[in-house]
Amino acid sequence: MTALTVKPAELALEEGKPYSTQFGDIYATRSGAYGQACAVFLSEGEIACRWAGKQNFTILENGFGLGTNFLATLKSWREDPHKSERLEYVALECFPVTDSQVLEFCAPELKDLACELSEKWPPCLPGFHVLEFDEGRVRLTLIFGDSRELSKKLLLSYDALFLDGFGPDKNPQMWEGALLRNLARYAKEGATVTTWCTKGDVRRALAQAGFELQKKQGFGKKRERLCGTMMAKRTKHTVRKIRDVIVIGAGLAGANVAYSLTKKGGSVRIVDAGVVPGAAASALSWAILHPHYSRDDNPLSKLSREGFLRTRSRLLELENITGQTLFEQLGCLQMAHDDSIYEDWQRASQLQLPFVLPKDYAELLGKKEASERTGLTLARGGYFFPMAGMVRAGAFCRALVQASGVPYRGNTEVQKLIRSGEKWQLIGIFGEVVDEASDVVICAAMGSESLLGTNTLGLEPLPGRITLLRDTDLNELKCPVSGEGYVAHMSDGYSAVGATYELERTGPWTERRAHEDNLAKLETLDLKAPEVVVTGGYYGVRASASGRMPILGKAYNEDRLKSAFYSKADMQKKSLWEEEGLWILTGLGSRGVSFSVLCADILAALMTGNPVPADSGLLKTMEPARNQLRLIKATKL
Which one, of 554, 558, 549, lies nearest residue 603 by Cα? Predict the structure, then answer.
């Protein structure tokens, strides 16, 4: 099977109705898109009856199209006084429409809601896109990609499944038996499936997967529709209610975890060694927010891309809540490190590798155009990201704590964690119990290993310095530029060049050497580097993990992990070594701004049993025990 590539939908009008030229079919029945959504997919009110009074209700849809089913569901949810506390809507789509098409072709009854959706609409990029409504109580996770591949890697359990692809004769891939069986794997016991398609092959595949099916009266000219209930036993799909959570650390990782958990209804508080949130490595006045390009779209690039978009959304959300300026969209240029790399990027672009990049997301520029766009005389061209910009990193942390309303306890050192009954106790420097909770999240950067009681996480300290310049320096710079280093200049006078990686093996490092190293980076970026004056610097220690991928998930017990491995236990049973109620997010390295929001959302979903906004493959690259398992395997005789 050849996986389909994400491509923009090709729309036209046929007799006044939106029509797909790719599949030769209309997007909805001529009897009315909104009416079909209510009658077929919302089952004439049955979905509303099922979500009544629940804490969470999750819907999975295959074939998002113009978003009619989602918008109809959102309308029904908002109007229902007995609705669930939260609604999770996950949709798979390989040929996404544009924001303007969402608005132009929406059902008249959904015009206002379509405006909301179009304002949040993501660029046409493969992967996970999280859109929030109603202060986060409704979360739409759009996953752009081939459903046949995506259906093998989801991390969710659903209450209802909507099947709404183009007809089997027009788009047979959407109705393959293997795909339908894969989608059925995520159904809770009692979950429903609804579709207008009653084809025999579809019925047989769903029945084999455990759905008990029945035909009901159809909508419009369609005589029948199909409904089903999952009767097969389900034991693994459970939603874990958040009881009481302490987050240790209030940098970008910890502050975002606290914010993400409160949006899911959690009772959260923060314990932090700093005097204020964002007082350690996250205490930057400004940091660059931008994705990173790679032609193979490796896990690091994927996390960078999806994390960049998610951080951007959260920053704009916080600005609306707090009234603060946290993000300035200036764009950012990623300059190729040398001519051979730029030539490689050109070839990859011509071959559309790793995929077609929308111009509103990224554009490969030559040296002349890149220089004009940035205001520097650049050594070579590179990728320009127009949606990128500068973030007030420290202020971001404090705004997250403020907006979440969680109690913050600063100036508090935690020495270790002890399990006491069903709770974890935080032990202070005098052996006192600082606090205790059923769940603890460790977001303590390089201090995370000692709190976990191990030295096998694979964390490496990356000390670094940013050189601060006069407010009159780099005045011609229009946007931040990254390459071997980076340069930035803000309207408030912040002007900087960075950053060093002061590893022990490359030492000794002094403040003077660090500034000289940064100024040399400026010369690699700008062929006519101006005279600048150093006025100060910022020093911090980043915590980096193996492969530069963060460490995220349930913490592990080192001794139990070794015992399970050497006893040849089933290593899929992670409960053998995982610590119940103990979680970790660390190792964000120098990409904390880009990674922290998405990683916090992923961790919050894992903790609560909600749909995880990442596939299983990406999650595996971040699991906390990965380095310890590598060490065990390397030393095993």
Answer: 554
Rounded CA-CA distance 217/181 in Å is 25
Q: What is the mean pLDDT of the chain?
A: 94
Query: Tokens 């009767």 correspond to what residue?
Result: 231
Q: Which residues of 333-367 are buried (b: 16+ CB within 10 A; e: fewer)?
A: bbbbeeeeebeebeebbeeebbeebeeebbbbbeb
The CATH architecture to which 11-230 belongs is: 3-Layer(aba) Sandwich (3.40)
Share of the chain above pLDDT 70, in %: 98
The architecture (CATH level 2) of 245-279+404-459+546-635 comes to: 3-Layer(bba) Sandwich (3.50)
CATH topology for 332-386+462-537 is D-Amino Acid Oxidase; Chain A, domain 2 (3.30.9)
d(CA 119, CA 50): 30
Instruction: Tell me the pTM.
Output: 0.96
CA angle 481, 483, 485 (to 5 degrees): 85
The DSSP-derived string for 324-340 is ---EE---EEEE-SSHH
For residue 593, which of 512, 488, 516 has the smallest C-alpha distance? 488
Tell which residue, 589, 378, 330, has the closest CA to residue 483: 378
User: Alpha helices of 408-472 — where are they, by DSSP H?
Assistant: 448-452
What number is the average pLDDT over the span 390-410? Answer: 97
With bands split at pLDDT 50, 70 and 90, how would you rate the model's confidence at 637?
Answer: very low
**Whole-angstrom Cα distance, residue 460 to residue 444?**
13
Distance CA 496, CA 447 (A): 28
Length of the chain: 637
CB neighbour list of residue 614: distance below 8 Å, 6 or more residues apart: 128, 155, 306, 598, 602
pLDDT band (50, 70, 90) for residue 240 = low
Could you give the strand order of the β-sheet that contains 17-20, starting from the edge strand earlier in sequence? Answer: 11-14, 17-20, 25-26
Domain segments of the chain as ranges? 11-230, 245-279+404-459+546-635, 332-386+462-537
